[in-house]
């Protein structure tokens, strides 16, 4: 898969030959520094790229090419097959609608579920993802909930559609440490119970190794290394740099090391491969 941005001067390639497979029931982490192309990859999968961006190659889901889908097919794909959890729930939940409206709207409009049945399903799922007093929370507005609770609401809204693929774009970034742990536990439990495939976007290699079956490392719009042993046995110089730049509780350091890997090194390593 590629993603280009055309301009009068020249076309800029943002994703270059991204080759990544997520199997049924498998959890894959996509790791890399900010600007490496992780979130852009998930948006390409959903066909949610900005207007001028052009995706090329093939994005295949269950034998169908997402890039070739017509409008009705794309709506079904987004509404039923794949769900996305964003890093900031407040940016993706309408602040003037109550939680019950947010959770039940899709079920009522796209699947013809009655409001009472949709609310029953929503309350049950809120309880499954750790929301206490779910009936009361349904009547509240987003500003009345903490970040951790709101992220649980967003997870519940995604799971209500019963997708088979879950895209989680740094879902714990905006949360405190305790809420981060709870949210990751919820995602892991729900994924295993429902047999979901998961593409998990994160900066944290250690977290990726703990919750995913396989890690893919992205740099400058390309996947430079992937496999089940990336954390324990990194082969690519960029992966080793990422690991060395992490803070450690085992020893004290006045200053964390800075990533030295750059595009020139990347080009040289590719040429010598």
UniProtKB/TrEMBL annotation:
Q: What is its main location?
A: membrane
Please provide, in alphabetical order, the Gene Ontology terms of the cellular component aspect for this entry.
plasma membrane
Please give, as recorded in its UniProt entry, the membrane topology of this protein.
Answer: Peripheral membrane protein
Residue span(s) of domain ABC transporter: 1-245
Q: Keywords in alphabetical order, please.
A: ATP-binding, Cell membrane, Membrane, Nucleotide-binding, Transport
Q: Is Cell membrane one of the keywords?
A: yes
Highest rank taxon of the organism: Bacteria
Q: What Pfam families does the entry give? A: ABC_tran
| UniProt GO MF annotations | ATP binding; ATP hydrolysis activity
The subcellular localization recorded is: Cell membrane
Family in the record: Belongs to the ABC transporter superfamily.
Protein's name in the database: Peptide ABC transporter ATP-binding protein
């Amino acid at each position: 898969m590629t993603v280009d941005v055309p301009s009068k001067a020249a076309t800029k390639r943002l994703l270059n030959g991204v080759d990544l497979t997520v199997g049924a029931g498998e959890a894959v982490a996509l790791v890399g520094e900010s600007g490496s192309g992780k979130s852009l990859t998930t948006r390409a999968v959903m066909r949610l790229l900005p207007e001028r961006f052009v995706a090329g190659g093939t994005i295949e889901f269950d034998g169908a090419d997402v890039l070739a889908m017509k409008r009705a097919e794309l709506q079904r794909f987004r509404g039923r097959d794949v769900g996305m959890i964003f890093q900031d729930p407040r940016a993706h939940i309408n602040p003037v609608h109550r939680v019950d409206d947010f959770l039940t709207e899709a079920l009522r409009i796209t699947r013809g579920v009655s409001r009472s049945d949709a609310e029953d399903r929503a309350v049950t799922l809120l309880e499954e993802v750790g929301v206490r007093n779910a009936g009361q929370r349904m009547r509240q507005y987003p500003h009345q909930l903490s970040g951790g609770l709101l992220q649980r609401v967003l997870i519940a809204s995604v799971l209500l559609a019963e997708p088979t693929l879950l895209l989680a774009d740094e879902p714990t970034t905006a949360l405190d440490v305790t809420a981060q742990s709870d949210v990751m536990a919820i995602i892991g439990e729900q994924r295993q119970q429902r047999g979901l495939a998961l593409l998990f976007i994160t900066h944290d290699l250690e977290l990726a190794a703990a919750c995913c079956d396989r890690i893919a490392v992205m740099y400058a719009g390309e996947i430079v290394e992937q496999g089940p042993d990336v954390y324990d046995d990194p082969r690519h110089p960029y992966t080793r740099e990422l690991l060395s730049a992490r803070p450690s509780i085992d020893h004290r350091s006045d200053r964390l090391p800075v990533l030295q890997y750059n595009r020139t090194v990347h080009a040289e390593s590719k040429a010598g491969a």
